[in-house]
Amino acid sequence: MDIIFSILIISFLIFIHELGHFLVARKSGMAVEEFGFGMPPKIFGKKYGDTVYSINLIPFGGFVRIKGESAAGNSYDADAFLGRPAWQRLFVVLAGVFMNFLLGFSIFWGLFTVGTDVALDQSNRALAKNLSIGVLEVAKDSPAFTAGLKPGDRIYKLSSDDQIFTDFNEGKFIELTKQFAGQEISLSLIDKEDVLVVPRIDPPQGEGSLGIAIAQIGTVKYPITTAFSRALDHSFSASVFMFEAAGNVLKNAFFKGDIQNLSGPIGIVNMTASSLDAGFSQTLGFMALISLNLAVFNLLPLPALDGGRIVFVLWEMISKKPVPQKYETWVHSIGMFLLLGLLLLVTIGDLKRLF
C-alpha cells in the first residue's frame, strides 16, 4: 500500500504541474487539444468543448497538448501556442513551475501554522515542544546500523543501568555517547521499540561513537502571519539550494559519468514510501520538498524541460526574432533523448540499490 500511495502522491504533484500549463494556456486564449491524467496509452477519453480529457494507463502525472506547439499546419492560428505573443507563451511555460512552488509553499505554510516537527536552531528553539534527537544519517556497519537505527528515528531518552537522561540537545547527546563508550546503552525511540547499542571507544574519523548524523527536533507552531513569511523564506531557501545541487549533480552525471547522487522514479517512490512510515506531517513535508524539487528541476535551462523552452522564448523577446522552429525542435529532441538515456541509467542504479 505504501508503494501505491507513493505513486499517487508523485502523480498528483506532476498533475498539478500540468494543470498550471492547462489553466494559463486556456486563460491566454490557446486551444488545449488534450489534458491527460497519467501517460499513454489511453484508457478512456471524453471531449468537452475543444478539449479531450483522458485517463491513461501509466499512473505518473499527466500531460497537456496545446494546439500548435510545433511549427506544423495551423501552428500560427490565433488560438495556437505559436500564434500567441511571446510573453503569453512565457507565462504558459512558467505556470507549471509556479504551481509546484505554490503547492510546496502552501503545504509548509499549513504545517508551520498547525505545528510541525523541524530541526531546531537559535531562531526557533524557544518555540519548540516535544524535543528529541532526530537521526539524519546512519553510517554503514556502525553500531547504530547494526542495532537497526534508521534515518527518521527520533530518540527521546538514553538509559544506562540506573541512569536515565531525557533533557539533551545534540552536544549533550554526543557527550553522553562518548561517556558510555564501550558500555551497552538503551535508546528510547518515538513510536518504536527501544534499541540497545554499544558506542565505540575509538570510532572512525568523522563518524562518532554511534555512527549517526543528528539534529535536535522539536514541534514548532507559528502564528499564521509569521508562518506565512517562514514558509515563504523556507521555500525560497530550499529551492535555491536544490537548484545549485541539481546543477552540480547533472554536471557530474553528464561530464563525469557519476550518477550515484541521482534518483529516478523508483528511488523517489521508495523515499516517499519511507516517509509514510514517519507519520502524516512528515509525509506532507516530504511531499512539499518533492513539489519544490519538481519546480526547480523543470526550471533548469536544459532542452526538453520548461527551462529550455523559457530560454528560447526569452531569446525571442530580447532579439525580437524567434529561433526557427525546426532548430528548436531538434534541440529539444536531442535533449529529450539524453534525458531519457540518463533516466534509464538512474533507474538501473535505483534497482541495484534496492536489490
Automatic annotation (TrEMBL):
Question: Its GO biological process terms?
Answer: proteolysis
The residues that cross the membrane are 6-25, 90-112, 330-351
Q: Which cellular component, as a GO term, is one annotated location?
A: membrane
> What are the GO MF terms of this UniProt record?
metalloendopeptidase activity
Enumerate the UniProt keywords alphabetically. Answer: Hydrolase, Membrane, Metalloprotease, Protease, Transmembrane, Transmembrane helix, Zinc
> Where in or outside the cell is it found?
Membrane
Q: One Pfam family of this protein, by short name?
A: Peptidase_M50
What membrane topology term does the record carry? Multi-pass membrane protein
Q: Which cofactor does it need?
A: Zn(2+)
* Record has Hydrolase as a keyword: yes
Domain named Peptidase M50: residues: 7-341
The text of the family note is:
Belongs to the peptidase M50B family.
* Designated name of the protein: Peptidase M50 domain-containing protein
Origin organism is: Candidatus Brennerbacteria bacterium RIFOXYD1_FULL_41_16
